[in-house]
Design a protein that fits this description.
Layout (H helix, E strand, L loop, with lengths): L8 E5 L4 H12 L4 E6 L6 H7 L3 E5 L5 H10 L5 E4 L14 H29 L4 E5 L12 H21 L5 E5 L7 H6 L8 H13 L3 E2 L3 H18 L6
Parallel strand pairs: 1-2, 1-4, 2-3, 4-5, 5-6, 6-7
Protein name: (S)-1-Phenylethanol dehydrogenase
Organism: Botrimarina colliarenosi
Family: Belongs to the short-chain dehydrogenases/reductases (SDR) family.
Length: about 240
């Protein structure tokens, strides 16, 4: 299903920096009528409001506080596009002392956070004509990297849920997009020690284009495109195939 962002009302979580802030910028540039900037506290959206004015509406969304998600779904009742961008990364291999603790935290934010967002906003999108739901996954959802094993596990789970959302929300006319970036030049990327990363703009502009094209997968940057090319056959034959056939 194709979805055009022009004149639409959108919501982006983790909107105050990195990929989230760039997504907000691209949505405004491409003509979004209103963008709810999902942040943990309103002051974190100050720079976006100063830059774009009244088109930005700060709204509290903290994946660690499910009540904020439910409240946001009631407050942002005109939303037609939801971008679930917020996420966390902890560096832990399977035998690290803090591996279990880190995995639990990453699952709570990266997986349960996604599920809470989808359950809260799916009825809103349905009421507003279907719209679109975008989930920021990762190339790490397809291949595990030992130094980030717990993060990779959480993203594999979120990708699995995204597939289920695509198939389920199709019935109400909601397009779903699964975004799989590689290393991106953000604070998270710096924390992970990545060099030669692509800018967040490639992700943001890729989302706008992929929504318009009606795609399910987006592999936006240099590394991600390599993953996407290698994965294409499996995706076409298994992920995108009709299980009833």
């Amino acid at each position: 299903m194709s979805f055009q962002v022009q004149t639409r009302t959108a919501l982006v979580t983790g909107a105050n920096r990195g990929i989230g802030a760039e997504i907000v910028s691209s949505l405004v540039t491409h003509g979004a009528r209103k963008v709810y900037a999902g942040v943990r506290s309103a002051e974190k959206a100050k720079a976006l409001v100063e830059r774009f004015g009244d088109v930005i509406v700060p709204i509290e969304i903290d994946y660690e506080k499910p009540a904020t998600i439910e409240a946001a779904a009631k407050a942002a009742s005109d939303v037609e596009l939801v971008v679930s961008n917020a996420g966390v990364l902890r560096t832990a291999d399977p035998f690290a002392d803090d591996a279990l603790k880190n995995l639990q935290y990453e699952l709570d934010i990266n997986v349960f956070g996604l599920l809470r967002m989808a359950r809260a906003f799916a009825p809103v999108l349905k009421k507003n004509g279907g719209g679109a739901f975008v989930q920021l996954n990762s190339v790490a959802s397809l291949r595990s990297f030992p130094p980030f094993a717990t993060y990779c596990a959480s993203k594999a789970a979120s990708y699995s849920l995204t597939q289920a959302l695509r198939d389920t929300l199709r019935e109400q006319g909601t397009a779903v997009l699964s975004v799989h970036p590689g290393p991106i030049d953000t604070d998270m990327g710096d924390h992970a020690g990545f060099d030669d990363s692509d800018p967040p703009l490639v992700v943001a502009e890729g989302i706008v284009a992929a929504l318009a094209a009606g795609d399910f997968h987006l592999f936006p940057d240099k590394m991600a495109k390599q993953f996407g090319e290698a994965y294409a056959g499996f995706a076409a034959g298994v992920i995108d195939a009709d299980p009833a056939e």
